[in-house]
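Researcher: If convenient, please comment on what follows.
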Amino acid sequence: MRNVLFSTALSLSLAATPLLTGPAIAQQRLQPGGSVQGDLSRGDDQLDTGEFVDVYEVQGRAGQPLSVVMRSDDFDAYLMIRGPGDFEEDNDDSGDDGTNAGLDVRLPADGTYRITATSYEPGESGRYSLSMSGGGNAGGRGAYAQASGGRGAQNAGGGMLQPGRSASGVLAQGDRTLQAGEFADDWELQVRRGQTYTISLDASDFDSYLMVRGAGGLSEDNDDDPGQRGGRNSRLTFTAVADGVVNVSATSFGSGETGRYQILAEQGGRAPYAGNGRPPQQNYQPPSRQADGSIQLGQTVNGELGQGARQLDSGEYINTYTLRGRRGQQLDLRLSSSAFDPYLAIQGPGLSEFNDDDPDGDGALDSRLFVTLPQDGDYQITATSYASGEAGAYRLGVFPADGRASQGRPRQDSYVDDRGRRQDVRGGNISIGDTVGGALQSGDEQLDSGEYVDTFTFSGRRGQRVAAELTSSAFDAYIILTTPSGEQIDNDDGEDGTNSRLDTVLQEEGEYQVMVTSFAAGETGSYRFSVSPSQGSPRQASVQGGPRVFAIMVGISEYGDVANDLPYTDEDAEKLAETLQRGGVLNPSSVVLTNAEATVGGVRRAFQQVARQAGPDDLFLFFFSGHGSQEDAQTSAQEPDGRTESIVLRDGEITDQEMAQLFDGLNTRLSLLVLDSCFSGGFARNVVDRPGVMGLFSSEEDLTSAVADKFEAGGYLSHFLRTGLAGAGDVDGDGMVTAGELATYLRRQFVAEVENVESETMDGQRNYQNLVIDRGGVQVDDVVLRLASNGSNAGSH
């Protein structure tokens, strides 16, 4: 009995650390902003799988973003980068035309990084260009969805920012695009270590969003200027941790937003907590002068803001007290006043928290914070006002929390952006399609292992495919999804390694709970979270719906003098066409050939006709139901049993070798060969030996196939193929039939219905009929077809 084959045409060695046939010496060093022209050719170093390689070195800094693009018209480019601490990233396609390669990474450590320029297939050679820039957003809101393309004058934006000098730009089509769909312009700012800078991004056309990345792990995001109540402009203050250039990205809160903006960089800046709501984590800079006094746990002090007190740049008076704290202490900080609107902050080793209004204060203006101290050391507690110039007496107390943090914890700090209007998330209830802004902070609910957590719920129905995505530049994101029946699905890392993305098909009706949390205990900071309808993985999402199946369907019952007649086999072809047409997926160019029409010449002409129209976005299907034959041939790698298999038409035969030649002429997304005939498994070795081809065969290469009388079908495979492509093969109900789902469905049906159907070889040896499925290079989640009835088809027409 021949085993079912599962092979792959992909070069798996490229997915792991590549092995070189000899020591690779870097050709030259690269610098951000530089480019080189190269040539892959014989004599170059090679991977153990045969690809030629050129190696370049670049000196990198921890936290430095790096963008590398490799382009070639001669071969399919492939990029790899390796560096300190086992750092490695690979890229095949950069997202433009599918043959160039691009990498956007954030370097994890100081040191030397090796960039390898190579090809996707072994032995490919030719010219290429390699360019590198210091831009890129490997963290934060996600990796680039595509390499930045040329930008016309109407899309101008980006360049060098000069402190104190305003610049303008436009977000528009053609700009760099973030993974979530936001357009972005890239600016650079020369900074000095220890100097504080403020970046302002003002736009009337869209909801602005700022990101700053730089050496030393500098990573700051800002959605709304904390000094503008209800405004949508963005303002971000940071202190440079190293000399050099930082990258500033001007973008939008929502995907696809466009319009004009003004951007301004200034030295210095107001403390960012003197505004509306809780400001971004890690932006607060402690006062540079000595504290006004000390305070101890359990102590209450009376003070006064006014003339003689220190002031922030924005005009608020402040008093600062030093608290000597111990790791693990839980504190309840309270600031009250009848003279002004209090604002409370604490800053210290590993901690930076702020509060405007006590969330449990029933509308009162007093400020209250629950914190857990992460380390031993001195902490600065700042008493100030919400608005500049406010003065008067206040009362500040520091008390043990005594486990009351869960009762007095801050209200879950999150909101939904609804067409530019901010709405608090009431009780954590959101809808599919919402984007939520929020923050993890001390005093939030905690998991048993110490991670802070915000919890959201949404209603889902069975078969919905959704993507839950959590992005943060402040902590390592982690998502926990709990189904209505209590099953838990976790996701740590999305595509860029620090953000989290969970793409799944809902299996139940009811309320789903998502916990937004961090990978490590005690991490805090702002985040963006969304649950949105999903078209699946990027590869799945690109598959269009509608009449994209270009099919040649052949069925022969009446063989005349060629062979004995068969029942139902002509109807197999006709019923398959009806099923696909009824499902809205059959292209009108498809052809059905039955009985006298099903000649060798007719099949060849159909290939020429249909193959000429089927393109890279389409599925090609060749289906045959009828007699199969086997003849003696010379033993070879293609025919190790010394026999050639063929399908029997009205006036002759098409062999497995000719079928391979016919499939060679196809240029489609996926090609499916389905043969319901005796000895059909022998076609697998000849045809399913190239990328994008999958084969379904009713029997092994030396065994016969039976007529499925019980289903009034010419063959069991014909019957189950129709039901599978009609929707029964969509096992998870997401509106797509994938290669893995179709294979699983057919196998299950054969086990249930064909297990005891007898079969025999040409020389009379008896066995049982077994299905043969060969996916070749087709991956499990590759889409065979998108069902029109799902209502979520992409690009249907």
